[in-house]
Amino acid sequence: MDIEPADRYGNKRSFQRAGSSQGAPDRVNKVCFDWQAGRCNRHPCRFLHSELPQPMSADGATSRRGNHQGLVRGISGAVGASISGWGKGRAGRKASDKICSYFIGGNCSYGDKCRFLHSWFIGDSFSLLAPLQGHQNVVTGIALSSESGKLYSGSKDESVRVWDSQTGQCTGVFNVGGEVGCMISEGAWIFIGVPNAVKAWNTQTATDQNLDGPIGQVYALVVGNDMLFAGTQDAHILAWKFNVAGNCFEPAASLNGHRLAVVSLVVGVMRLYSGSMDHTIKVWDLATLQCLQTLNDHTSVVTSLLCWDQFLLSSSLDQTIKVWAATESGNLEVKYIHNKEHGVLVLCGMHDAQAKPVLLCSCTDKSIHIYDLPS
Asked: Could you tell me if residue 355 is left (phi over 0), alpha (psi between -120 and 50 degrees) or otherwise beta?
């Protein structure tokens, strides 16, 4: 599933600052956009490599209009902390902080003398251990095996790579014969969603199986109630059970109801939740596999689902994160809506170093935001 964010700045190479002077050439009143982003390589450059003075207000104070603080939001590789009424931001940031895009690309020639930040993060919540390089296309799935201690990554380059969790070295590359749509780890098993199949690898016995049945790309996988569920491109949710006697997975059910591809799945307290390109979330009973409720509050693709405590969290390309809770009747309804400036791709809940629950939220502007989760 390719989701391309809109270009925030269009094709403009510079932006107009406040206080244009009459009769002065254009270059005097324009600041180089590439210089602002830390990547201008024109020598000489026809645009200014400096900030213009801001206009004075009637009382002599500098006007804050035209600061263009949006330039520092959503910089590639940055973790930006946002403040909301539900979850407070995890890390502060200054409006003047800018990350060097050449550093992100690994080729800044200024080194320690660069006027822009050489950091993957703004804030102190995380630190980079090591970049794992080797895939030739988008990485679409990551799974950490508790049994083998290995990290597995899948990509649209049709390969799965195995990494040593201690050294960060790639220890194996496997061609899976199609673009990887998702992957998860469950016990000794690694499950990989590819077009028209789910591949199951046993890390203990080094055996693999092909689970047939899906039509089109497999976008989501989850395990619940001793079954493996797969969300597929043809709007179905397929289920398999493991046959111990036969040492194989057998088809168990097909859940129908969505009108477009199922791209997100999560399990919580005998419920299966599915998010789809049809903008809906469906709630399924894990015992009967019957649909109990359809949630219609999103206006675009439901990209990710997360169960946390008594809440269901959902994200969408409609630039919202919605928090759902059960009413007295047992049905879910929205309790809180957090609005974002960009579409939201993935939600992940975890505990930080102080054992506090946090929410990691990746967006279409290539940034990750961190919030406190309700406890």
From this structure: left
